[in-house]
Amino acid sequence: MYLTIYLLHVSVLINGLVCKDPKVVTENDFFTSGLNVAGDTSKNLVGSNVTTVNVGRIPGLNTLGISLVRIDFAPWGINAPHTHPRATEILTIIKGTLRVGFVTSNTENRHITKVLNEGDVFVFPEGLIHYQQNIGHDNAVVIAALSSQNPGVITIANAVFGANPDISADILAKAFQLNENTVKQLQARF
Amino acid sequence: MYLTIYLLHVSVLINGLVCKDPKVVTENDFFTSGLNVAGDTSKNLVGSNVTTVNVGRIPGLNTLGISLVRIDFAPWGINAPHTHPRATEILTIIKGTLRVGFVTSNTENRHITKVLNEGDVFVFPEGLIHYQQNIGHDNAVVIAALSSQNPGVITIANAVFGANPDISADILAKAFQLNENTVKQLQARF
Amino acid sequence: MYLTIYLLHVSVLINGLVCKDPKVVTENDFFTSGLNVAGDTSKNLVGSNVTTVNVGRIPGLNTLGISLVRIDFAPWGINAPHTHPRATEILTIIKGTLRVGFVTSNTENRHITKVLNEGDVFVFPEGLIHYQQNIGHDNAVVIAALSSQNPGVITIANAVFGANPDISADILAKAFQLNENTVKQLQARF
Amino acid sequence: MYLTIYLLHVSVLINGLVCKDPKVVTENDFFTSGLNVAGDTSKNLVGSNVTTVNVGRIPGLNTLGISLVRIDFAPWGINAPHTHPRATEILTIIKGTLRVGFVTSNTENRHITKVLNEGDVFVFPEGLIHYQQNIGHDNAVVIAALSSQNPGVITIANAVFGANPDISADILAKAFQLNENTVKQLQARF
Amino acid sequence: MYLTIYLLHVSVLINGLVCKDPKVVTENDFFTSGLNVAGDTSKNLVGSNVTTVNVGRIPGLNTLGISLVRIDFAPWGINAPHTHPRATEILTIIKGTLRVGFVTSNTENRHITKVLNEGDVFVFPEGLIHYQQNIGHDNAVVIAALSSQNPGVITIANAVFGANPDISADILAKAFQLNENTVKQLQARF
Amino acid sequence: MYLTIYLLHVSVLINGLVCKDPKVVTENDFFTSGLNVAGDTSKNLVGSNVTTVNVGRIPGLNTLGISLVRIDFAPWGINAPHTHPRATEILTIIKGTLRVGFVTSNTENRHITKVLNEGDVFVFPEGLIHYQQNIGHDNAVVIAALSSQNPGVITIANAVFGANPDISADILAKAFQLNENTVKQLQARF
């Protein structure tokens, strides 16, 4: 027997997130605030901070394939090499001067890099390792868009040396041509 | 017989645009500049100007499913009701105060609207009619991202009353409940 | 702790609609009737009527990316300019003579139009504004297919002038180059 | 060196078909005629005829994911069991009475079947084996839509027993539990 | 009113299968064993056995678009002509010598076939009828991958002659150019 | 003017690769050999070798979304941490015992790991960093499938420390919490 119970009182998780009935959405399901507020770049070692506006913050983005971030940089701060497993990124410089770059796949591993100033725009194709570095003496600000409502971020150093539990040190030693003690020291830091 | 000629000297149009061999791309295929420059809002009747950064301007965006725009508004300028036939839009207010809104499909035609200030973010789902209006006394600036490298824009009034050649006036009269003379006057303006 | 409760007695909404367990579907989940019945064209001002066969009427269409409509036209009736935000449409004339057309995106706004007779077929690409007009002296009938199980319909005049609540009259006045009183009169009609 | 030659004088094949520059398309790229003309059902053994309106006939359909067919049936004619490798089909009966059916995948192989009359609509999900049979005393006519501009058709008996060159008779004998002589007779017929 | 109940204790079916909260997945959601074990080829008439590793066996595959199978063949065993309605297949021969083939769509019905030995690789495009036959004197083993987590299998003879309930014998007689008694005998066997 | 030249004698690059006219494909467009041959694991520092069977080797795979690899491991060899920017991977152990693992996205960076023996199967979701390590005393062999005809590979250490030209050492020093001299030594090695 197949009995339909109208789901008036439960939320279903699609992509791990709540999907509302279209008839009860309001303007607040398509809205968030605060992208004018600088992220705190003093709380980590790399001098940058990413403020994320994805489907976790705007429920109405679910299934629509787009999201935004603001990235703040202290002088000489970096957004460390990372990938988005499910998105291409396009950014524009709101303030400051940055060196940006990405690296192509094997076996070329070409480093495509450029210095960007205010109003410049750059693209990081889906899944490729990329970074930004503030090379000016002041704070820098970037707005970037990603081609997924849930793009994901893999910060390479953290995922490799800060995985929980640790990846076996002998694997990383061989992969990075480091000795195991150095690997273990790195793992202790991340 | 099937003869392969290596296409060293021609460009193939994919989606109507040139696709380069990946091995010869450079940083300039992923780059453009000028998004810090305010568009001229004095050249049209609606007091706004959209600066588009899509695949036509950054060849490396082709097939990657994302693009950017900057929109400038004179005081009380509007970005007239329009759709993007192939993209969802997410915008953030860089400067100013805007009323924004979109209208849901038939038969509800719900008007989802909100006043946005600096740092606020709003989403316009794919294909729905939407607009922005500067409701402040100064210029306003928006950065928006779209979920296609070639999202397209259909400005409703222009497409309806400014189609070339004209849509028959009796159709528009009936659709908009206007008399045919009014329609013809509108068509003369667009 | 992760506890699996078999969902024997609830229906989950996918795309806002019920998805059945494949093992309990029957022929009736893939079926509907009544597309031979002319829609009533006398109940509205435009002299046409669209009978929709989408996933709301055939549950088995969910995720399959296709649906049908029948459109009936009184003599000189129109299917007013509209878009489908999520579908291309292909139609064939079962009976009668119609003028049909669509308008391309900015900035060309080319009006692609043709007179169609019985057995003629025409395509309206995804998201573009299009219309049909019966230009014969008898009723006309069309069968059309859409490339989504839930294509959506945005009747331009209704969404613009009949949004609920109203779009601010000054926005529409500026967009359509009408005075605000005319806009308010239009809004009162829709 | 990378030299761009504008392709003013060549057509590029996308999906094996010509793609025009959007700026030079005309209404005839979105049009065909003749779907009111009954196909000749007397030229084959199964008493049916499919008139196809796909991207091969309407160039503007390319990439848009939809197409149409008209199917004519002599009394007791059948549209033999077949699949569309790249499309779901939805049909409506214009005239006549048909038995239609599809078979679900292994291991159930459920036969989902129904008798349809004028105005009835039925769905055949992508890739499943399906058929139609005119069970009335007059001709029958169907209009069907498919969720691809190039859906493909695999008539099961023809592909199995009429492949060119033949599939080895011992394979078909084992698969269909026939003796090899019967298989060879069948292969001679197709 | 819209009340969110966190679904801590229920599993939602996506594509008819359970989707776990990403935070509670473990290595066992991405794992299965046993693909080294030969399937029993003696339990059916065709002398082959397919061991399937799809989303039904590895829950973590859901939405990821890939799966594996192992196929064992007795000497002269066949994997009877079949299609995968939602996947392309690529296989490699682990052991033995097989003839493989697929048939292209109407109207060519070209039979693309080749004899494969250990280490050879072959592709069967999505939705096309294909088969494998062990033409050696020993057992043969194949590993194949499919481009869907839930590709489906339609064994042609079983779906046609073993559908439940039967497809009407007169339809199959006409389609396969057999007499109805032969069809009924076949239906009795499947 | 629009002139069609039939492209009888040129090959068009789709995704950077040649696409043949479907009417002239042969069995060799869907075939390759050699996956039974062990890759040479002695030519690099990590003791593994990947033999790739993608669209570059089988032209008929283009657009079909799947490919295969064989991976050979010397005793204690590793397939160093890497990502596939456009594919999920599913592997099965043909011979040997391996530890495998992947790391989830920020901010959890969970290390999902398992020891696999012959016949075991494991999944690495799209874009996530993963590795395999032979933990046995003999050679090990893996067959893996990827959900793209052109999945790409980014070996993390090579892309980070072996990019060409180098990524600035101060960026990598900060990202990996190494001193710049260590970074430069690493860059010299890769």
TrEMBL record, chains A, B, C, D, E, F:
PROSITE patterns for the chain: GERMIN
Coiled-coil intervals: none
PANTHER family tied to this protein: GERMIN-LIKE PROTEIN SUBFAMILY 3 MEMBER 3
Residues that, per the record, bind oxalate: N79, H84, E89
Binding residues for Mn(2+): H82, H84, E89, H130
Any single Gene Ontology cellular-component annotation: apoplast
Family: Belongs to the germin family.
Segments forming domain Cupin type-1: 43-184
Membrane-crossing segments per the record: none
Keywords assigned by UniProt, alphabetized: Apoplast, Disulfide bond, Manganese, Metal-binding, Secreted, Signal
Protein name: Germin-like protein
Extent of the signal sequence: 1-19
Annotated compartments: Secreted, Extracellular space, Apoplast
One GO molecular-function entry: manganese ion binding
Principal location: secreted
